[in-house]
# Entry
Amino acid sequence: MIEVERLSKRFGPVTAVDDLSFTVRPGRVTGFLGPNGAGKTTTMRIILGLAAPTSGRALVGGRRYDRLIRPLREVGSLLDATALHAGRTGWAHLWSIAQANGIAKQRVTEVLGLTGLESVARRRVGGFSLGMKQRLGIAAALLGDPPVLMFDEPVNGLDPEGIHWIRGFFRELAADGRTVLVSSHLMSEMAQTADHLVIIGRGRLLADVPTAELIESSARRDVLLRTPRAAELAALIKARGGTVTRQDDGALVVTGLDAAAIGDLAAGDGIAVHALVPRQASLEDAYLDLTGESTDYRGRLQ
Amino acid sequence: MSAPSLATRALDLLGSEWTKFRSVRSTYWSLLVAVVTPIAVSAVVAFAFTTAPGHGPPPDPLLPGVISLEYAVIAISVLGVLAFSAEYSTGLIRVTFTAAPRRRAVLAAKAVVLAAVTLAAGEVVAFVSFGLVQAVLAGHGQGVSLGHPGVLGAVLCAGLLLCVCALLGLALGAIIRHTAGGIAATIAVILVPGIAALLPAPWNGRVGRFTLLEAAQQVSALHPAANLFSPGWSLLVLLAWPAAGLAAAALVITRRDA
# Structure
């Protein structure tokens, strides 16, 4: 479990994280979502004890990260897969990290197997592709077999096969009962990976919801309608309990009645219908609405 | 899982830093240059003292060996700087500090590994150079043997120079966090105070006695200079330079975000 409590981080005049609170629970993949610059990486760095918060605190398993004796056995993390010494072999990289936490050599071999890197382990990482570096970073995160895992933008730079692999991998980790936090700036990516979403914008919490709930609430279903006898049909729709709004271009947007019902109504009175389009807002739209609102909100404040 | 003892954790961290140290090529290149250059130079310096026109014997039979060691200063300083700056410049430092959140322990582990290797390298260089220099000087009837009073201690102290410079480089690499900047700063801190030698007497000695290289020469001399600190005090001055650097690094390393 990861607990972020009223966390704030200022860099001079810039507030990167602003009074942020959320809890990441075990047994599910939690997506940590926000536009670039929203404060995701800063929050993760604070959780990992790499950066000091201006106020508030972050706890992992109930303790501050820098108080952990064998941190990699409690938290595995990958912030930047390219943060490697190009001249070191993959094996030496992992072994040096393992040693610092009293992890046996055999476990290095195991995580190399889990990530499919056995055959390249003795090569210098300077020659690794970005996908191989991501796998190496994930191998490092798994070294301590930790109950909590954090990945910052792990999908960046992966090919479709790699993305498929990594999604399944996160699900397996969560199914094991682990706490899995995965950041991304792409809603479409998180919609397919995460069970729960923590969405931030400009360092503030915007939403902390199950993915399914967000999809449900965001599913703005309506029907776009064009007809030459708009006023008459609108009256009929309202009489049947629908809600009608008129767009600037003369089209009607109907909620509360589905396309079939509207079509039947129109046909019953011999009203011509030129367009009848059921519409559904995507999760991406919901996300843009959320993060866009945060921008507007801040803009009005200032 | 019971909490591992402090000694176990210290050994784990030393093992980790040792693996990092020996798994990159820059380590071997720096050490090779730092060991081969002064040994090669030592015989030449000794010849120069005995054969150059207008030169008599060296003022101190150990001086050629000490001068030769100074040719290793840049390579060994680079080795020290890289231990931290390479991690900062690649971002690897975040991996290191997530694996070991006690940053001063990381600094200490790096210092111990670096000190052990560079001390061994420095002593090898000091003794091999000594042998070569004395072989050359002996041909002119000016050599001394290791058994001569004061010689063994002086040669041992001469071997400290590489370790001192490497640790100073480590500290400045941790403070500056950039490779080029760290190397430039380390070389500057070691060499620039040398201008004290150009001051008019007695100030050349009064200021010069505090410089790293004068202190190194003083502890490595068979006949210490009269205007500098005694060899004992000079040894303290020599060790104070990396000690001060490491203390400063220990202060800033925990205060900055990584």
Observations:
- The interface with chain A takes residues 1, 3-4, 8-9, 12-13, 15-17, 19-20, 23-26, 86-87, 90-92, 94-102, 257-258 of chain B (CB under 8 Å).
- The two ends of chain B are 29 Å apart (CA to CA).
- The mean pLDDT of chain B is 93.
